[in-house]
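Narrative of activities, Objective 1.

The group set out to show that a structural description can be obtained from nothing but a protein's sequence at a throughput compatible with the screening campaign. Below is one input-output pair from the validation batch, recorded exactly as produced.
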Amino acid sequence: MNGEVIILEKKYSERNLQLITGKKDISSHTMDIPEEMLLLSEAIEDPRRLPYLLETFYTAQIKNEKAFHFALLRVQVDSDIRMHEDIQRYQQRRYVAETLEKLLYGELMLSVGDNTSLEED
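Output recorded for this entry:
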């Protein structure tokens, strides 16, 4: 299940793309995945790349803001659920998603003690 998908001559984790897009079957949608989603996949695959991608994310023209925000939320939720599998890996993935959410949206939707709803966007 953890195969690779090649998009524009780059390899991406199939599982990461499924998580980010929210689609279990991405095989017929690979050419429709926006660039910012592919960048997010790269960042959560190797969180050490995040410092070099921050400006790219900040200046990117995100095609669907709501879909990208939900992608960040899915990474955070998935990281929390899988934390027991590899704590360092999933803490880093969560950190990537939280950092990007703060950078792009100013705050965290899933922060502890926050009653902000998804409808307030």
